[in-house]
Amino acid sequence: MIFKDDFPSTPPKCRFEPPLFHPNVYPSGTVCLSLLDEGKDWKPSISVKQLLLGIQDLLDAPNPEDPAQADAFQVYMQNKQEYEKRVKRQAIQFSEDVVRKQLMGD
């Protein structure tokens, strides 16, 4: 999460590094969620906890009405079993990368 000086007047930018394979995450890693959009549902009263819970919900249940990544969206819509397989493979890879970095002292 990246917070500007005028937070909470403006929402933070939420980004995954490295980017996730997910219909609502742009190829850059930026999360596509209405709570994070000033023109949609952002309100200064929204807490960081609420944002994190909203992102967690979105990761668990993608919003097909607001796709941000064409490949992930197509796989999700056409073959949910393949989508789940790719997400699990990605989770394993990320966890292995984290462990490797911890062992190497990065």
UniProtKB/TrEMBL annotation:
Q: Does the keyword ATP-binding apply?
A: yes
Q: Which domain of life is it from?
A: Eukaryota
- SMART domains from the UniProt entry: UBCc
Which residues of this protein are catalytic?
32
Keywords (alphabetical) are: ATP-binding, Nucleotide-binding, Transferase, Ubl conjugation pathway
- UBC core domain location is 1-96
Q: Which CDD domains match?
A: UBCc_UBE2I (cd23798)
Q: Per the UniProt entry, what is one GO biological process?
A: protein modification by small protein conjugation
| Record GO terms (molecular function) | ATP binding; transferase activity
| SUPFAM superfamilies reported for this sequence | UBC-like (SSF54495)
Which Pfam family would be a valid example here? Answer: UQ_con
Q: Which InterPro entries match?
A: Ub_conjugating_enzyme, UBC, UBQ-conjugating_AS, UBQ-conjugating_enzyme/RWD
Family as reported in the entry's similarity comment: Belongs to the ubiquitin-conjugating enzyme family.
Report what the protein is called: UBC core domain-containing protein
